[in-house]
Description:
Distance between the termini: 37 Å
Oligomer: single chain
Helix content: 10-25%
Mean pLDDT: 92
Amino acid sequence: xxxxxxxxxxxxxxxxxxxxxxxxxxxxxxxxxxxxxxxxxxxxxxxxxxxxxxxxxxxxxxxxxxxxxxxxxxxxxxxxxxxxxxxxxxxxxxxxxxxxxxxxxxxxxxxxxxxxxxxxxxxxxxxxxxxxxxxxxxxxxxxxxxxxxxxxxxxxxxxxxxxxxxxxxxxxxxxxxxxxxxxxxxxxxxxxxxxxxxxxxxxxxxxxxxxxxxxxxxxxxxxxxxxxxxxxxxxxxxxxxxxxxxxxxxxxxxxxxxxxxxxxxxxxxxxxxxxxxxxx
Length: 280
């Protein structure tokens, strides 16, 4: 990275930003837009975000975009990010999920199973993102790498420090926090796009700062801070890939152990979708 970091001051802060949770953000909620390489620090010196443009291989980005542009991810559990009330969101997860009350076993996501070819095509890009993360933010990467080493390799995306990648299709998220992800690790965000569009900047309203990410760039950010997206304008297609490690994955056994756990909790007729986990 070139140039000195941008260190915000307390005068830059929106102290009552929490009230925006669940609301949609726009230009009223930021004063600065990061478009070029930059490191942005909070007033106490901790990293808020780092953006590096044109650092991901164009051929990989283009290949994954072409393989994924037909996908229409959907989810009804994005909660605050979707504006609340279990609204259907154009979002789903590649990779793995940890135990949850409705699915009390670690597992490969149904979206990955249904779109295995697209997942396999995306794996080299996920690896490239992890390596660039290591280069740009080595301390945070090392901490996350040590965490990933505590997770069964059956539930880590091969060659990365990530357990999961959320894919969003033209998704304008409302202001929310990603509280289930491992910290002090960062989330690594890449955008794949086709056609012409404007907006959809990633906004951190407390810090009055937004990031305009473009294809080939990589944003590393602390997404435990309140964030959301500005409006998307135009007819282009914007896919965002949000790579992270889920904190609860350290409680997972091996894939076989989790399969046996699921079998104890469900009858075989109720749990066919977890069977492919053993084959990955």
